[in-house]
Amino acid sequence: MASEAQYTIQREEAAPQALSTVGAGGAVGLFILGLLNNLPYVVILTAAIELLPSHVPTGLLAFVNIAPALLAKAIFPYFLKGEIWYAHRVVACVSAAFSGMLITALFSSLIVRLSGIALASFVSGLGEVTYLQYTTRYPYNVTAQCVGWFASGTGAAGLAGALAWWIVRPLGVRTGLGALSLLPFGMAIAFFGLLPTPPMSSTSRRSGQSSDEAAQSLMGPETNGEDDAVEEPRQQPAESLSFAYKMQLLRPMFIPYILPLVTVYFAEYTINQGIAPTLLYPVPDASKHWLLSTMIHTLRDYYPLYQLTYQTFVFFSRSYTSVLRLPAIPKKWLWAPAMVQGSLMFFLTTESVFAWFRESIARSLVIVLIAVEGLAGGAAYIGSSDRATPNGAQPTALQRQEYEFRIGSVGLGDSFGILLASIVSIPFQVLLCDAQVARGRDLCTRV
């Protein structure tokens, strides 16, 4: 088995490898997979106030919406061995995502509704791990762009999910969420109909397509067929990575890649689920705030607007490597978004308690800070995921499993941070509301 140093996940900053353009089919397919895989998660978070009784903190929904995803990300990369049957996983993810959303829509019982949310969450986590691992099967000179297009889709899921709920919200939970439950079937169309068969797969997803054809269908017209041709790897014996060896692979990834994501997403989702629901102001007067008055008609409109703003800027920051072809954050700067999120968490917490922003600009300033929060979170995700993509020569079957494990492990960081935030935000929201009431501001009790 190759040494850890030989297959390091860090790219050489001084001599980056030239990338060919990802082909239209591969780009669109990966974008759709990221979009539809994360859409149920975002819709449920955006609809938190409508899905829960008024006396239940939104942090409870956040916990149920992330804990199963964390479980999936912990189980599948770490404990399952051998080759991944991607087609089977995709079918399972599509079916379970549809079922989870439908259960959430059709049943008003809190326990049953939370069970549906948990099911949708589990397959969302499994889907993210699966699709990120699947990108390692493509030629290495386009793997980073494959990750970029998938990440762009996950960012678009935030925007599309928030917008989708904003549109169907007048229909109510039963009809609106029921209609959105059909969207996960698009993942099957994208995976089986748009993605080319990876030339690095030892077990093909679809038969009848050669490795060279697959490489050409994924890579754009700039690709030189002779220079970028990839030889088919020799058949490897049936081997798998042991749990102990996976822990060896994980150790050098923890501080530079995983821990920054934990920190970023802990602060980010503490803001989203614990602080943002308490950032309430009187309904804006059209004569003073003409734009905000068109979007905010009741106190309940603040939270969906915050979520829409956040998800919009997450999409922008997760798309810069794929759409704009800009490099991801260097390894040495991966802690910068965590510092930004920590500062935002402090400022918004003090605003919630003391209302020290000037009333005339408080609403707009909060929205701007939430936009910055989205930019920092998206940049951290794409930076860590991009740096975890493999680099090097055509791998053996066992080395492919190493690459799949590495990129699948990165996603554990954001899910763990969100899980911690969901636990903290439940009492934190109550604490902030109590502090507001003690200071004579009771808007948080009227939502």
TrEMBL record:
Record keywords: Amino-acid transport, Membrane, Transmembrane, Transmembrane helix, Transport, Vacuole
Q: Does the keyword Secreted apply?
A: no
Q: Where is this region: Disordered?
A: 201-233
The cross-references to InterPro entries, in alphabetical order and at most eight, read: Battenin_disease_Cln3
> Gene Ontology cellular component?
endomembrane system; vacuolar membrane
UniProt superkingdom: Eukaryota
One matching Pfam family: CLN3
Q: How does it sit in the membrane?
A: Multi-pass membrane protein
Please give the start and end residues of each transmembrane region: 21-48, 60-79, 91-111, 117-134, 146-167, 179-197, 254-271, 333-357, 364-382, 415-433
> What are the subcellular locations of this protein?
Endomembrane system; Vacuole membrane
Alphabetical GO biological process terms: amino acid transport; regulation of intracellular pH
Q: Keyword Membrane on this protein?
A: yes
Main location (coarse class): membrane
Low complexity bias: where? 201-211
Q: Which family does it belong to?
A: Belongs to the battenin family.
What PANTHER family does the database record attribute to this sequence? BATTENIN
What is the recorded name of this protein?
Protein BTN
- Which classification does the entry list for the species? Eukaryota, Fungi, Dikarya, Basidiomycota, Ustilaginomycotina
